[in-house]
Specification:
single chain, alpha/beta, tt1808, chain A, Rossmann fold, 4 domains, 6-stranded parallel beta sheet, 28 helices, globular, restriction system, type I site-specific deoxyribonuclease activity
Length: about 750
Amino acid sequence: MWRNFRQKIEQNNVAVLDGHPLTEQEFRQIQNQLQFGTFYDAAKWLAGENGVTKVQVQLEDATLGTVRLEVVRREDVAGGTSSYEVVNQIEMPKVFADYQNRRFDVSLLINGLPLIHIELKNADHSYMDAFRQIKKYLSDGMFNGIYSVVQMFVVSDPYHTRYIAPASGTKMNERFLTNWVDEHNQPVETLTDFTDQVLSIPQAHKMVTQYTVIDSIRKSLILLRPYQIHAIERVREATKHQVSGYVWHTTGSGKTLTAYKVARNLLQIPSIDKTIFIVDRVDLDQQTTSSFMAYAENDTIDIDETEHVRDLIKKLKSTDRTVIVTTIQKLNFVMRRFADKQGTRDYERLTKLKIAFVVDECHRAVSARKQWEINGFFHNALWYGFTGTPIFEQNARPEEGNLPRTTAEQYGERLHEYTVKEAIHDGAVLGFQVEYTNTIRDDQLTELVAKRANKSLAEVAKMDSVEMEKNLLPSDYLNKKHMWKVVESIVNRSQRKLGLYNGRGNSYTALLTTSSISQAQRYYDLFKELNAGKAPFTISKATKERLPDFPKIAITYSVTENDVNSTLNQDAMRKAIRDYNEMFGTSYSLENIRQYNANINDRLARKQARYLSREEQLDIVIVVDRLLTGFDAPCLSTLFIDRPPMQPQNIIQAFSRTNRIFDKNKQYGQIVVYQLPHTFAKAVEEALILYSNGGENEILAPEWKVAHNRLKKAAASLKKFTLDPSGPSISELPDATLKQFAKAFQGFDKGLAAAQVYT
């Protein structure tokens, strides 16, 4: 392997080496540089300078000095200096005396580097055995030296193939094994078909150079999923024809990452002067910019955050080719500032820019009227929207002249689609488990409806549940009795939902959403009373034994200046920020509330290492609408809802805060509804029909009775395997019996894990 790599280096650097082959000492320098401690470090090296990977060599002839030799050119796909080879049965010597020598199955080389490694199993073994074999090799330290540069693992049996980004053995999570799908989201399972679509040239080269992202925050390498790659390709095709469009990728499937790659690729098109990424609120501006910065740190582009309007104007006037991240509000100020400057040089320069707008959460970020105004200012604009919840005819916006009312009318054709049904099937996101908790007893509801509707109890008994709930008033859910029931449900009946049994520092986070700021403030005060021991109930002993400081609460909402309740809301927020500062030793104030909100985001998401410590963690954040759209926190498991049903797109958006893949104990995104249970259930059904593309029954977890029956059936299957104490031991049983036992045990384990999350 090393000898082959040496030949490639010499062939691609003939001019630099001036015809002199590398000496042993010079090549050892290169070998030493290719001893990476992590695959993340290898990925940073491969990113190179402006897309060219290099090594530095001090030549033995001192008069010749130091040279930098090219290794791989990212853009040389199926041409240029790139060469491709396949090797198999490479013997890897053991690292320690008591370990074993190993043979790697198949590796794909680009310019002599094994950037893709494949482990194969026959029909008697699952691809999961191949995955576990790679993890074993990792723990044995076998991926060292030239194999420390691997950027993609592939595991396969004759019927199934998966790929995954490399990581250390402890961080290789099987839940991130990805199966390939074609552009129509049809699965590609066999190794032959997978090879044709993914491992052939040019696709294999693109997979490890153009469809990887280096995350500098998580110190990890990300391989794009197939639907992300297909969307990027469709946008690229659209730009060739100078047409706009939108991408429907379900929430939680990595839209921001896809949008980053789209924005990056748009800069490579000469006909586009600027790429502007628009987000719809300041808090998402911060989160998106943070993600973009993390992705771009080792990429060949720059990301500019616009802190002020004058900063945005400066960047628009600049000739630098960068991705600009900004909000619609800042863009609006730019247009206002130049409204009366027609004919000036700056006006002409800005209005004639060829701009590609990439819009996150496009179902709400840019209104149809605002887009019409922007197009009137920037005369050469292309628009590419990303959303998990497009606006359709069924939930179209109110009519406003001839302005577009749906996402398709506003942005153009749908370029790619990946719905929640497909994402759950592929394991890209989790399904939802929704529980409807009624704090008003059925007999109380019947009497209440009879009184308000002036009907007899017999007449009310014939009404359906949704019709009965139409007689309830908001005040029925704003009383302290109802709210205390909600708080008790959260702290004493949601331990598994919140992962309190996972161990200190490993619990999950949650959101509690209310219908108003005043209701959110009341809940915040109730939780403070609870923690002060003044609640009408106590936190369970089991909870306190596991997490003595549970629950740690914060609140966030939009603070305004001139509304009727502005002063009251500002005073309440000041008190909440003081509590927060006391809890975490911070020093935020109302004057820097943006930083306070950003810190809440970070603590709730726990993506940074410091927030893995229990002392730095939040448990629950109380919100109205903030964080219900666009917020990404894989460790967030549960959404508690004490408000009436929202619009279909807002239901899906809010639910989708919970269904990111995280760890093996997080089985579903958990939703608990405390108001109008039957009305809410109907609204959820309608939203799922609208946004699941016919797969609404595949998205929700089964009801408790179904899950319970599945568990009993799995337990009965497991009980069939009883060992006779006087008979053979487990290790002596036939392989067929052991396989049947393993399958039965896995079924029981899966059923038990699924059943434990029900309240």
